[in-house]
Structures are given as C-alpha cells and as structure tokens.
Amino acid sequence: MALKQLAFSVCAALLTGSMVSALAPTAEAYTSRSMTSTLIQGTAKELAQTNQEQQAEQWFNQGWKLIDAGNPEQALALFDRVLKLYPNHALTLTGRGQALYDMNRYQDSLAAFKQALKLNNQLVGAWIGLGNALDETGQPQAALNAYDQAIKLQPQNAIAWYNKGVTLGRLKQYKDAIAAYDQAIKIEPKYESAWFNRGVMLANLERFQEAIVAFNETLKINPDNQKAQQNRDILLRKVGQVPRGNSTVTVR
C-alpha cells in the first residue's frame, strides 16, 4: 500500500496577522515641528519591521519549496527562523510539522501540528498532517478522527480521503478503505495511488475482477507502474485468464 502523501504543495501564503499598521499620512509629519524627529524614527522602525516581514515570508515560501524538493532538514531550519520572529504563526508551525514528519521525527511532528491547530483549528493541511503523525505513532483511530476533521472543513480534499483510506487499509477495514479511495477518485479521477490501493483492497477481499479493473485504471494513468502491472498479471493468472503463477499480490 502506498505511504501517506504530503498534505501540502508549495505554499505562497502571506504571514497573516503580523503586519504593522500603515504609516500616518505624510501631512501629519509637519503638523508639529517637535514631532518630526519622533515620526522619522517611527518610520525607520516600521520600515525595518517591514523588511523583517519580507525576509520571514521568503523563508516561509522557500521552506515549502524545500519540502516539495525532498529537503526537509533545510526546510526545518527556515521554518525555525520564521518562528523566532513569529512564534505563533500557525502556517509556519504546520510547515515545521511537515518537515519533521518527512524526517521521521513523528513525535516532534505531532507536537508541531497540535500547536498549529491550537492557534488555528481551521487549517486543513494541519489536520491532515496531524492524522499522518498520529498514524505513524500507533494511534490510528485518532488519525481517522483528524482526517474526518479535515474532510469536514474541506469535503473535496482528495488527499484527506486518500490518507484516510491508507489508515483504514492498515486496520484491515478494507470495505471502508475502498469507500475512502472512491471519494478520492471521485474528486481526482486520475489519482494513480488511489486506484492502485483500491486494487489492493479489492484483492484482499478476493474481488479479483474488480481489482483487475482498478489496476488497469492505474496503468492507464501511468503505464510504467510496474507494481500495478505485476499485481494485475498475478490476478489474471488467478482467475485463469493467463497461465497460473505466483498467487501473491504485492503491495507497496
């Protein structure tokens, strides 16, 4: 069965909630001569803060790019830089959680996602990430609850449905897993991993003809998927459509 998928792609969100208030109109700087130096100093301070925000946003966006590029260690360092400036920025804590998850530091990842959701419980990506971390730390039911929270917030999130299917499959709740994969495929008809895992679940239920169809759909999306090819051929042999061979269905 395929591993849990990333909850996020490159994220270009601004650092919300951290912007300084706008400068006063220029005319006010000359209302009183005694106030001029104070206003100039205040302007310089605000410009420095603006530059700080720009730098933090660059680190934030670069961190997500590094996640997508498979460099979670570097991403973590950038997210930590942002959090030194904005320790309560939920999206950055979510990124930190994803980086830690990708580094197999699941307990640390769990803590980061929980902290992000404590600050903003509307973050779909953080709920998905929390589910992934919970599953990896041996808490599958809590993981399912987290995915359900993500789905409640965003019913059309294919990754939430897919990852829910993975957890259900690990629990050998194959029919429920198929239903979750069906939802993911309904949202994204060319979801290769969902079709593949659907085939595995069907094979586990000995619904071999349906599993063959699922693996065929996988191969339509990606003709180079060797595991789908292998599984389909094994099942074809099993139902007598090709010479019999190894009857074991491989999973990933």
Share of helix among residues? Answer: 55-70%
Count the beta strands: 0
Oligomer state equals single chain
Net shape? elongated
Mean pLDDT score: 82
**Largest sheet, if any?**
none
- Low-pLDDT runs of 5+ residues are 6-39, 243-248
H/E series: HHHHHHHHHHH
| Alpha-beta content class | mainly alpha
DSSP summary: helix tally? 11
Instruction: Give the distance, in angstroms, between the N- and C-terminal Cα atoms.
Output: 4 Å
Rg, alpha carbons: 24 Å
Q: Per DSSP, what share of the residues sits in E-state strands of 2 or more residues?
A: under 5%
Features:
mainly alpha; 252 residues; 67% helix
Structure commentary:
- The protein has 252 residues and is an all-alpha fold.
- It is 67% helix and 0% strand.
- The chain has eleven helices and no strands.
- It is elongated and about 75 Å long.
- The relative contact order is 0.08.
- Mean pLDDT is 82; it is low at 6-39 and 243-248.
Brief synopsis:
By secondary structure, the chain is an all-alpha fold. Helices cover 67% and strands 0% of the residues.
Secondary structure: elements and pairs:
Blueprint: H1 36-68, H2 72-85, H3 90-102, H4 106-119, H5 124-136, H6 140-153, H7 158-170, H8 174-187, H9 192-204, H10 208-221, H11 226-238
Helix pairs in contact: 1-2, 1-3, 2-3, 3-4, 3-5, 4-5, 5-6, 5-7, 6-7, 7-8, 7-9, 8-9, 9-10, 10-11
